[in-house]
Amino acid sequence: MSLDYVKFSNGFEKFMPKEYRDMVEHGPFGKKVTVSQMGNFKEVLEEHPMCAGCAMTLFIRLAMIAFPNPEDTITVGTAGCGRLAISQAAIPFVYGNYGDQNGVASGLSRGLRLRFGDKPKDVVVMAGDGGTADIGFQQVLHSWFRKERFTTIMLDNEVYGNTGGQESGMTNRGAVLKMAPLGKKFEKMDMLQMAKVAGCAYVATVVPNNPRRVESVIKKAVLIAREVGSTYIQAYTSCNIEYAIPTDKVMEDAKAVENDRYQFTEYVSEEAKQYLTERYGYKEFLAKPAAPAAAIPGKA
Amino acid sequence: MYLVADINVEICAAKSCKLCTQYCPEANTIQYSEELGKDKGFKYGSAYVAVDRCKGCAQCVWVCDNMAKNYAIKMIMIDQLPKAALTENITYGEKSTTAVLASPVVG
Ligand SMILES: Cc1ncc(C[n+]2csc(CCOP(=O)(O)OP(=O)(O)O)c2C)c(N)n1
Ligand code: SF4
Ligand code: SF4
Ligand code: SF4
Predict the structure, then answer these.
(1) pLDDT exceeds cutoff 60 at A57
(2) Residue with the nearest Cα to atom 5 of ligand 3?
(3) Residue B29 beta carbon below 6 angstroms from any ligand 4 atom
(4) ipTM of this complex
(5) Which domain holds residue A203?
(6) How many Å lie between the alpha carbon of A220 and the closest alpha carbon of chain B?
(7) A46, A110, A235, A269: least CB-packed within 10 angstroms?
(8) pTM for the model
(9) Angle, helices A101-116/A137-145, rounded to nearest 10 degrees
């Protein structure tokens, strides 16, 4: 796992597919790319079978552009729609049983540290709301309490999308779904609060209708997880199939949901703020200069 | 037959805001070319669609109409496009891409 793993072996270049050659020569490896350069470089994500217009697909696309070092990143996933795309990228992908992603990522992240020492290798988990808040819940929380140093991203489409519309812990109260015909009887789980209680160093919510914010949040989460501790991003990534959103209205829905229950929130621990400032030159956490005291009339 | 997105170069090149590619769910589908529109005096190039990757969701149409307010993208039946960009005809350069347009439907 390094820049070398994508390069051609001598003499093989002419046998490689065009997409692969483009990715090696014009992809993001070893460079810094940003969302504003999209459309001008070859992305690591290739074609995949996720539904047309799926917001989760867009989020995964943006996430892969945001990884600070894609050539030194491993993604971990589980059953659910997202793995259909995450697995189709030039970034190694580990896929376990449903719900064990944070257990697998714990071992992987520790093993990489033993093998590569201080050279950062980033581990990023991306799993559905069912995989994160229901089936994988126990492993997710324990990895956070243990302060495992990797990023957990919940692809929250508020339903089990891959299996036809069962309610999850993240479905909203009252939502009627194909396989929850009477409507959900309980509230949406507050995973953000749980992440803070469990000691995550960074917790944020995002919606993919703001690509630059997705980029910024993912960069911070991955960098903080290198040294400080667990980081958690909860992304609203609607399922247009199970919630019957016309595909050309997916971004309109994202905007409405962002204004309603998915406003941007970001928690950064004091240690993480200091780390980002000192190590990576972030300016946003520096103390703001105090406003000059208002002149008092009549005093010189 | 099925619908794919088609970008009107002259309308896009007048603005060329690059928003649609940031919102297309599919990777490397809406690309940019600094060359497109240059022959007609436009400075910044235009977006274009690699139609073999387009899934026809029309999200880009919503973005161009409602966010860019430029109405440059229409959904068109793929066999009604005489020529279009296809992945195999796209070349990457240092900062931008170029595409040789070809018939998107074989046979
Ligand atoms: C142990 C186990 N139980 C059940 C399944 C079947 N299964 C596959 S995907 C899925 C639901 C996925 O829902 P979620 O995690 O919310 O992801 P989404 O598909 O909505 O992105 C289930 C139940 C499985 N693969 N393994
Ligand atoms: S079923 Fe829903 S979440 Fe899954 S790919 Fe389709 S639209 Fe996306
Ligand atoms: S959103 Fe419209 S104007 Fe902006 S780049 Fe795309 S097609 Fe051109
Ligand atoms: S129709 Fe959908 S898949 Fe096709 S270019 Fe537009 S946003 Fe991308």
Answers:
(1) yes
(2) B18
(3) yes
(4) 0.97
(5) 3-160+189-295
(6) 20
(7) A110
(8) 0.96
(9) 40
